[in-house]
Amino acid sequence: GEVCTMINKKYSEFLPSMQSAEDLVSQVEELASNIDLLRAGIENEVQRDLNVAVAEFTELKQQLERDTLVLSILKKLQEFDTAIKEYNTALLEKKYVAAAQHLKEAHSSLKMLKSRKGFELKILKALGTELTVQTQNMLYHLGEEWQKLAVWKLPPSKESSSLESVMHSELHLHTVPSKEEEIAGPPVASVLEAFAVLGELHTKLKIFGQLLLKYILKPLISYPSLQPFTEEQSDVFILRFKSEEPSLDHSSPMEVFDKIKLVFEVLHKYLLNVSLEQPAEDGKDCRVTLAELLGEMIWGELSDCLIQNCLVNSIPTNSSKLEQYIEVIKSTEEFETALKTMQFLKGDTTDLLKYARNVNSHFANKKCQDVIVAARNLMTSEIHNTVKISPDSCVALPKLPDPGAGHLKAQKTSGLLHSDTAHLGNETKLSQYTFSLPMCRISSSVEKLMELAYQTLVEATASTDQCCIQLFYSVRNIFQLFYDVVPTYHKENLQKLPQLAAIHHNNCMYIAHHLLTLGHQFRYRLTSILCDGAATFVDLVPAFRRLGMECFLAQMRVQKGEILERLSSARNFSNMDDEENYCAANKAIRQVLHQLKRLGKVWQDVLPVNVYCKAMGTLLNTALSEIVTRIAALEDISTEDADRLYSLCRTMVEEGPQVFTPLPEDDKNKKYQEEVPVYVEKWMTFKELMIILQANLQEIVDQWADGKGPLAAEFSAAEVKSLIRALFQNTERRAAALAKIK
Description:
Elements lengths: L1 H91 L3 H20 L6 H28 E4 L9 H4 L3 E4 L14 H10 L3 H22 L3 E7 L4 E7 L9 H20 L2 E5 L5 E5 H25 L10 H17 L9 H7 L1 H21 L6 E4 L50 E4 H18 L3 H25 L1 H6 L1 H24 L1 H7 L11 H27 L11 H24 L6 H24 L6 H17 L10 H9 L1 H4 L3 H12 L2 H8 L5 H5 L2 H11 L4 H9 L2
Antiparallel strand pairs: 1-2, 2-4, 3-4, 5-6, 7-8
Family: Belongs to the ZW10 family.
Protein name: Centromere/kinetochore protein zw10 homolog
Organism: Oreotrochilus melanogaster
C-alpha cells in the first residue's frame, strides 16, 4: 500500500511535466511548419519582387546617366554655338583678340564632343567644317589687316640682287598710333595677338623675318654705300635706303652695327614692342614680346652674315693694327647690349661676340691663309719674268725688331741678312763669299716669294706666341708648297724650254741659299717658343738643291740626245770622197753648232758663269767625243777622205769655242772662249785626231814617242794602230811604224 502511494505521487508529478513537454513539441512542430510556409512564400514571391525592383533601379540609374550625358552634350553644343555667335559679333566689331578667343573656345568644345565614346553624332562633322571655315575666314581678315599694317614695296623679282634693285626696297608701317585710335582700325597689337591665339603668328613672323633679312638687313651688311633712311608721316612710318659714296670697299663693323641697330630701333618702336600670351611648357601662360620671337627666328642667320661679310673683313692683316681691334670688340658688345634691351636677343655671349673676341686666332688664321694664297699666286705666275741678282743683293725687308725691345730676349742679332757676311756661333769670320750667290737671273716671282717669307717671319716675331708659331709654320708651308707645286704646274715648259729649266735651277739654288740662314736671324724670338732648334729651315736645303739640279740635268739629257741624233745622220763619216756623204756630214756638224749657239744664247746672262761653262763644255764634249769615236772606227780612209774629215774637224775646233757666250758683253766672253780646253774633256783628243789625219807615218811615230808623247796621252796603242791601218797602204814602212806603237 505504501509503495503504491509513492508511485502515484511520482506519477502525478510526472504527468504535468510530460504534458508540458508535449506542448512544447507541438509548438515547435507548428513553428517549423510556419517557417517552411514562410520560406516557400519568400522563395516564391518576395524574391521575385526584389529582382524586379533591382532591375528597375539599374534601369533608372542608366536612364539618369544617359540624360546627364545628353544634357552635357547639349550644353557643349550650346557653348559651341554661343562661341561662334560671339565670335561673329566680335569679328564684325574688329575685336580680333576676343574673336580669336571665342574661336578657340568653340574649338575646345568641339574637341570635348569628339572625345565622347558611343556618341558619334553626324552633326559633329558639320560643326568641324563650320569651325574650319570660320577659322580660315578669320585668318583671311587678319591677313588683310596685317598686309595693311606692314606693306613691303619690293623690286621686281626678275631683277638680280644688285645694288640698283636693292635701292627700290621699302617697308611702310601703318602702325603710327593716331589720335582717334578707335575709328582708325585695330592697333597692330590686337592683330598679332589674334594670330598668336590661332597659332599662326609663327608663320606670319617667319615670312616677315625672311623679307627683312633679304631686302633690308643683308643688303646693309653687303653694300657699304647703303644708308637706312626713315621718315614718319601722319599715318605711316617708312623705312628705305639712300646711297652714299662709301669710303672703303668694306664698311667697318661699327658702321654696320649702327645701321642694323637703327633698323631694329624703328621696328621696335613701331611694330615689335607688343607683348603676347604664349602657352608655356607647364600649361601656364607667359608673356613674350614680338621682338623676342622675331629675334629667335632671324638672329642665327643675321649673325652668320655679320661674321662672314663684316667681321671677317675687319680682322687686321698685320699685328700693329691688332691693338685697335679693341674698338671692334667694344662696339660688338654695345650692339648686343642694345639688341638685348629691345629684347631681340636673350642669353649671354653669342657667336658674334665670341668671334670678335677671338680676334688673335682669326688674325693668325687669316694671315696664314693670305700668305699661302699670295705664295701660290707667285708660284703659278710666269717663270720667265726675271730679275738679276748679284753676290751683294739682299732681300728688301723692313728693319728687324731690336731684340731688346718688347718681349724679345735681349741678345745681339745681326740686322738684315746681307748675303755677303755671316757670323757663326764661334765668331770665326768666313770669307765674304761663303754665303754669297753668283750673279745670275731668277724669276721675279721667286724674289717676291722670298720677300713674303721674310716679311711673314718679321710679323711672326712681333706677334703673340700662338700666332708666332702659326706664322712660322706657314712660312715653312710656303717652301713645301713650292717644292710640290712648281715642278708639276710648270712641268711641260720645264721639259721643253731650256731657258726655263735654267731659271728654275737658279730659283731653287736661290731658295736653298736663303734657307741656310733664314731661321738664323729670327732665332732669338722663335726658339723661345718653338721647341729646341725647331726654328730652322736648313733641313729643306738639300731637297731644293736636288730639285734644281734634277730639272737642269733632265734638260741636259734632252740636249745631248738631240746632238747625238743630229750626228747620226753624218753617215758614220765614211767615204767622204762621195759628195753626197760629205754634204750629209757637213750638214750634221753645222746643225750641232747651230744648236749649241742657240743654247749659248738662251742661257746667256741667265746661268751663273761657272754653271754655264760646265754645261756648254759638257755638250760640246758630247759632240767631239762622238765624232772621234766614229772616225777612229773607220777601216779605210783615202787621202781625199782624210782631207775632208780634217776640214770638218777644223770647223768644230774653230767655231766650237764661239758658242761660249756666258755674258751679254762680247769682249768679256773672249776669256771663256780661250778656256774651252778646261771645260771640254775631249778637246786635246780631238786636236790629236786632226794631227793624225794630216801627218805622215814618221810624224805619227814621233807624236807617240814610245808611249810618252801627246798622242799617247789621248789614244790607246790599239786605236792608233787601227788609224794607221786605215790611213796608209800596207807597206814595209807601215809595218815598221806599227811595230813602234806599243
